[in-house]
Write a structure and sequence with these properties.
It catalyses: 3-phosphoshikimate + phosphoenolpyruvate = 5-O-(1-carboxyvinyl)-3-phosphoshikimate + phosphate. It is found in: Cytoplasm. It contains twelve helices and 22 strands. The longest helix is centred in the N-terminal third of the chain and has 13 residues.
């Protein structure tokens, strides 16, 4: 499905949008719920990734000893489920996914689990899915990882740690990246009653055979909120959008949006369980610099916002974007260049030169990446664009296009 987004103006009066629960929190809590069934969850993410996670976890209740589980494009599910099934005694599964998933490395996590005694083999190419996992009791409790690896590898280990007889002591070597996602995992463990500590580069999670019954409400996704920050930034002064449900003391690293978008004239006000975004002034900067180690998922949104505002940007700390649904740095370079931007990328950075060039009626390729589709959509406030394979947004935000229509975007299928 390709969508044409005609150059649009959104209603400056306040619009309200309810955003689905955080995919990051949901997938962590779904795994913990599978380990501790007395946990109850509210505001579960309606994303494809979380649907894949729930589907895969349901296999664990089936009587057959061997199952093949296809998690399609769901990278978080692949990492978390690798750890989960490694500790399911007398169960054997083959985890596979889309053609892109088979290109995304899993070896770092597999080797860490093998340090603990896990039995995992590769079905096709060494280091990549599909993988065969023979679940067993893991006795060892110490593992070492490079600190700059994807936080999902680290979180996968931490999430199964309370079910290990001796808990887990995880040592990270070097400078740690994506700290907020690690802290999110530990905070959710604490919330269900698991004892943890994070001192210097050592994380300890204690064994917990049982946890007390609890009902947890999942905060809405800050990554999804980023597209509305971009919309407000690219709109006129006085534009307001209200989003729910958000917490001022969020566990999500992408809540850094509240500070970053001040540079673009967007003020955030917390109102009970909602946030009000308001355009208060026009950006006076010619270039911005952000270190996004702790929030790489909002890099695409920020890059497009800057280009739409005609200002330059230099974004760093983006090395994990190379192994996402696509190589997001190269994808951004290609698509922004088609629109008239002058872009350069390195292994962990992206730079856009200040420019007022903005070509019209350009088709944006999405590379099976939901964030490419959503990050570029706000540009329809400046020019008409076409989003190819627009249905990819269902991975994290199924109602995205309908929500845009409701606030005034002119969208039609082509």
């Amino acid at each position: 499905m390709n969508l044409v987004l005609q150059q649009s103006n959104i209603d400056k009066t306040q619009s309200s949008i309810k955003i689905t629960g955080s995919k990051s929190e949901t997938n962590r809590l779904l795994l913990l719920q599978a380990l501790y069934p007395n946990i109850k969850l509210e505001n579960i993410s309606k994303s494809d990734d979380s649907d894949a996670m729930q589907m895969a976890l349901a296999f664990n209740h089936q009587s057959s000893t061997i199952n093949q589980i296809d998690i399609h494009h769901a990278g978080t599910a692949m990492r978390f489920l690798t750890a989960f099934f490694a500790i399911q005694e007398n169960k054997e599964v083959v985890l596979t996914g889309s053609s892109r998933m088979k290109e995304r490395p899993i070896q770092i996590l597999v080797e860490a689990l093998k340090q603990l005694g896990a039995e995992i083999t590769y079905e096709e190419n060494d280091g990549y899915p599909p993988i065969r996992i023979k679940g067993k009791k893991l006795i060892k409790n110490r593992v070492t990882l490079a600190a700059n690896v994807s936080s999902q590898y680290i979180s996968a280990l931490l999430l199964i740690a309370p079910k290990l007889d001796n808990g887990l002591e995880l040592t990270l070597q070097g400078e740690i990246t994506s700290v907020p996602y690690i802290k999110m995992t530990l905070a959710l463990l604490n919330e269900i009653g698991v004892e943890t500590s994070f001192k210097k580069n050592t994380i300890t999670v204690c064994h917990a055979e049982l946890v007390s019954a609890s009902k947890l409400t999942i905060e809405s996704d800050w990554s999804s909120a980023s597209y509305f920050y971009s919309i407000v930034a690219l709109s006129g002064i006085g534009t307001e959008i209200k989003l729910s449900s958000y917490k001022e003391n969020s566990l999500q690293g992408d809540s850094a949006l509240t500070e970053i978008y001040k540079d673009f004239g967007v003020e955030t006000t917390f109102q009970e369980n909602s946030i009000l975004l308001r355009k208060t002034n026009n950006c006076q900067l010619s270039i911005v610099n952000y270190q996004l180690n702790n929030s790489p998922d909002i890099a695409q949104t920020i890059a497009v916002t800057c280009f739409g505002l005609g200002i330059g940007c230099h974004l760093t700390g983006l090395h994990t974007l190379k192994i996402k649904e696509t190589d997001r740095l190269e994808a951004l370079k290609i698509e922004l260049s088609k629109l008239g931007a002058i872009v350069s990328v390195t292994n962990d950075s992206l730079t856009i030169e200040k420019s007022n060039n903005l070509n019209s009626n350009i088709s944006i390729a999405t590379y099976q990446d939901h964030r490419m589709a959503m990050a570029f959509a706000p540009l329809a406030l400046k020019t008409s664009i076409i989003i190819n394979e627009a249905e990819v947004v269902s991975k994290s935000f199924p109602s995205f296009w309908e929500d845009l229509k409701n606030i005034g975007f002119q969208i039609s299928e082509v």
